[in-house]
Design brief:
alpha/beta, globular
């Protein structure tokens, strides 16, 4: 049977996705100072659902309010906000869209502005910026066991408030990805060493979440195909973990890759010294970043596969769906400027998604005192800011600012992050001692 973008997909848990397009997880920064969901989440996710997406994944919801990926994260950690979560879930399920909550712990990739001492399996500091990230405190055994409990608690809360599934984030250099990597995980106990030990935390979380939520609740895992660093999590190890995840009974695996040090997930690469691409140029020969990795992983996978990153044309998406590479196409950045494009693509009204990055450049005359490498870094920061600022605008009921320039976006993003963090710290200061 020929698969189109509009073809439904039956998942192992019994959920049927209405089509093959998924709004991939993107950080929103819309939480209130107590890290609770707000009406802005409901406005934003209803808009995405009305655009025709079949599955929508939230931005990472943190399991511990003391450890965040950015100041505006939602956290579920005894801080209330259940009514707001219910409104969020109801809005995000508009029109039959499935809404799954992505659950995360930032690990060592927690900004120093939030905590100077993040938690990780070992005390290996993030090398991309010494000023931006502190030296991690290694987790104790009891703290690791508590993290399993916390993931299950957030999943139970998601189900109770109307989300139809969860995605466990084990990619991109966050905590569960830290445990999988022998570069970051230097433990010698049951949580470190061989891959079966490094994967233990992820697998225990999956099994505990399944026990807590039942077999008809959707469970996805986001997993790096490779960390693309010398000595780190490899494609062969990924295949082994995928087999174990199949035995644990997950419903959807999102194949990704990279970390803050090697940001392959957004089509960039870090230093040549550490960049490792096991599939070499074949991984770049197609439109999407990780399609070839999904194909390499497919023999080990008993669950449907999803790939996010780089897809722009219906032709490339449907080709990948029909050649067995994947089952679900993830879309992220195009939805920050046009929420209607998924339905238009499915109906054949457009042939390609919008792309914005090529227009977001920092010209030499705009930053004449910067070297080309520093100007490139500023441009990357401005592009990130552009997408984040437009997500915030849509949550506020505004239209995306498509004409916003790279430097303007960088400034707006930095100002928002600083102000959000100050409000968060003020709320912490006013909170009663526990």
């Amino acid at each position: 049977m020929t698969v189109t973008l509009g073809t439904p997909l039956d998942l192992p848990c019994g959920i049927t996705l209405p089509n093959r397009l998924c709004k991939a997880a993107m950080t929103e920064g819309l939480a209130d100072p107590q890290l609770r969901a707000t009406s802005k989440h409901a406005v934003l996710y209803k808009r995405w659902a009305e655009g025709g997406i079949g599955l929508s994944l939230t931005g990472n919801v943190q399991i511990d309010r003391n450890h965040l990926e950015r100041p505006g994260n939602v956290a579920i950690d005894g801080n209330g906000g259940l009514d707001e979560l219910k409104a969020y879930a109801e809005a995000g399920r508009t029109g039959g869209t499935e809404l799954w909550m992505q659950i995360n712990h930032p690990g060592r990739q927690e900004p120093a502005s939030i905590s100077a001492r993040p938690r990780a399996p070992s005390d290996v500091r993030l090398g991309s910026s010494e000023a931006a990230f502190g030296t991690p405190i290694p987790l104790t055994h009891d703290e690791i066991v508590d993290i399993i409990r916390r993931f299950a608690h957030v999943a139970e809360t998601a189900k109770a408030t109307g989300f139809t599934g969860v995605q466990i984030h084990a990619a991109h250099g966050y905590l569960l990805s830290n445990f999988l990597s022998p570069v970051v995980n230097r433990r010698t106990d049951q949580w470190g060493g061989p891959i079966e030990n490094r994967a233990r935390l992820l697998l225990d979380i999956v099994r505990t979440v399944r026990e807590a939520t039942g077999r008809h609740f959707g469970i996805s895992v986001k997993l790096n195909s490779s960390d693309f660093q010398q000595g780190a999590f490899t494609l062969d190890e990924c295949r082994q973990v995928v087999g174990w995840l199949g035995e644990a009974g997950i419903d959807l695996l999102e194949v990704s890759g990279g970390t803050y040090e090697q940001p392959a997930m957004v089509g960039q690469k870090g230093s040549a010294r550490t960049w490792q691409d096991p599939l070499k140029e074949s991984s770049r020969a197609r439109e999407a970043y990780f399609v070839e990795y999904a194909k390499a992983i497919r023999p080990a996978a008993t669950m449907p596969l999803m790939v996010t990153g780089g897809f722009r044309t219906r032709e490339a998406m449907e080709s990948a769906l029909n050649d067995g590479s994947l089952d679900v196409v993830g879309i992220a950045r195009p939805l920050c400027g046009d929420t209607e494009c998924p339905g238009q693509l499915i109906r054949g009204e457009i042939d390609a998604l919008p792309a914005y990055e090529h227009t977001l450049v920092v010209r030499e005359e705009e930053a004449p005192d910067l070297s080309p490498s520093h100007r490139s870094l500023l441009q990357q920061h401005g592009q990130q800011g552009w997408f984040c600022v437009n997500i915030i605008r849509m949550g506020e009921g505004k239209e995306p600012a498509l004409d916003m320039g790279c430097l303007e976006a960088a400034r707006a993003y930095d100002e928002n992050e600083a102000a959000t963090n100050e409000r968060r710290k003020a709320a912490l200061d006013m909170a009663p001692a526990e």
